[in-house]
């Protein structure tokens, strides 16, 4: 099973990098250097960004679910992604931030603010209804604030420009932009992976974890901050993408036999695969203009989300 | 031989400053009315966040013990039987160990008769079955002190007696076992009982001595009558309505 998934990841990454082959072959005939240029300057940043962003959504989704002890916690439903979008919009269109790494920091601050608000509103280990309602309220408020910030932005093109990336867009990102998202995100993800054991133990309850010498409150703050950094940085470069962070951990936990902490690595791999597939779909759709990736993930993710809610309800009533 | 040496244990609003010494091999019951402070005392010994004071186990300060060492010193079994994730019974028991030890886990599975349930997700077990799995998790690491909050609730009569046997065996092997308890009919199985109410230890005696005392009846608001328990001062209670 594990081998199959890794093979799937490699296959997806290769397909994403090389397809469509046509332009590459033409360039190869004209000038071999041009083909390399297309691969390294255009294709590679996009592939890396998609892989990295998908993995970040998987890891942070799994970590947030472990901390909230709830399979419905995730970067999008907690409002972290919307907060990151708001942070990036404010930074980019109001403060005039153009440096990608600074923009990533704006995204992280926005995500952190919303996650902090969620913890304050719902509390850790909130019941599902409270978590969903608080997360929804925060996401809606952040979305409205983002629209407002765009409508009133100094640049009249802000709205049009933002539509292009807010719902997820990987086209025409430079290597520098990919690095600005992926370097902080990788650091945060590594630090999250190091907390796998602690997040497994917290499955036994915060009191048991504390009796074993862990600090559940500090762990929760660390997970929230690291998830915000990872997601915020990615959103600032490629927009807010829903459902991957919700769905990938569910499959991740199948592979970790239910362990919420150990699920982080498989969730990362599965998140990367899901986003690669979604972006391949975007590129394959024969339309004049690109569909945002977030639309694809939402189209496929919504039924899965509904299934998750139904199975959870069945478990509660059983 | 003193195994547990606790000084000035306290939790704001729940437990007043308390000292407690427990010998290795002692089987201690914590009894008292709801909200009296039994759980708070266990939590403060387990050093769960917010607990003041110091706890030394075999002379070692628990707060200073590194994570791996801490498991060898104590384990805490909460009254809640909730496990949020569908982890198998075997894997839940394994979480009680610092490194995997299949042989030791099999011992516990055998001890708690979990052979048929060991591969099932704990979230799908009955509350009583889950109680056995979680107790096995608490015992698997062989810690010096076992802190068990209401381990006997939700158990059928067979398992109540089996759990008491298991606690006695643990005590006989030199572990100190501290158990919060509601069922007074099992109190005679313990070496020592602490009566806890209003956030402090009211009495500390052998079970028979404790149950015979006036203070015991006062605190619990019950009295012994014809080999059973009856509500004390039922007239007062009615008049206060």
Description:
The complex is a heterodimer of chains A (318) and B (241). Chain A is mainly alpha-helical and 318 residues long. Chain A has helices spanning 2-18, 21-30, 32-68, 80-94, 100-122, 128-151, 158-166, 175-193, 196-201, 206-211, 216-238, 244-255, 264-284, 293-317. The radius of gyration of chain A is 19 Å and the shape is globular. The termini of chain B are far apart. By secondary structure, chain B is an alpha/beta fold. In chain B, a hairpin with a 3-residue loop joins strand 1 (2-11) and strand 2. In chain B, helix 4 (102-111) crosses helix 5 (127-140). Chains A and B meet through helix 10 of A and helix 2 and strand 6 of B.
Any idea what the shape of chain B is?
A: globular
Q: Nearest-angstrom radius of gyration of chain B? A: 19 Å
Q: Output the number of helix runs of chain A.
A: 14
Distance between the termini of chain A: 30 Å
Instruction: Extract low-pLDDT stretches of chain B.
Output: none
Mean pLDDT of chain A: 84
Shape of chain A: globular
Distance from first to last alpha carbon of chain B? 50 Å
The class by helix and strand makeup of chain A works out as mainly alpha
Q: Structural class of the helix and strand makeup of chain B?
A: alpha/beta
Short description:
Chain A is mainly α. Chain A has 14 helices and no strands.
Question: How are the secondary structure elements laid out?
Answer:
The complex is a heterodimer of chains A (318) and B (241).
Chain A: H1 2-18, H2 21-30, H3 32-68, H4 80-94, H5 100-122, H6 128-151, H7 158-166, H8 175-193, H9 196-201, H10 206-211, H11 216-238, H12 244-255, H13 264-284, H14 293-317
Helix pairs in contact in A: 1-3, 1-13, 2-3, 3-8, 3-11, 3-12, 3-13, 4-5, 4-6, 4-11, 5-6, 5-8, 5-11, 8-11, 12-13
Chain B: E1 2-11, E2 15-23, E3 27-31, H1 38-45, E4 52-57, E5 60-61, H2 67-73, E6 74-77, H3 89-94, H4 102-111, H5 127-140, E7 145-149, H6 157-172, E8 176-180, E9 192-197, E10 200-205, H7 207-212, H8 214-220, E11 222-225, E12 228-231, H9 234-239
Parallel strand pairs in B: 3-8, 3-9, 6-7, 7-8
Antiparallel strand pairs in B: 1-2, 1-4, 4-5, 9-10, 11-12
Helix pairs in contact in B: 4-5
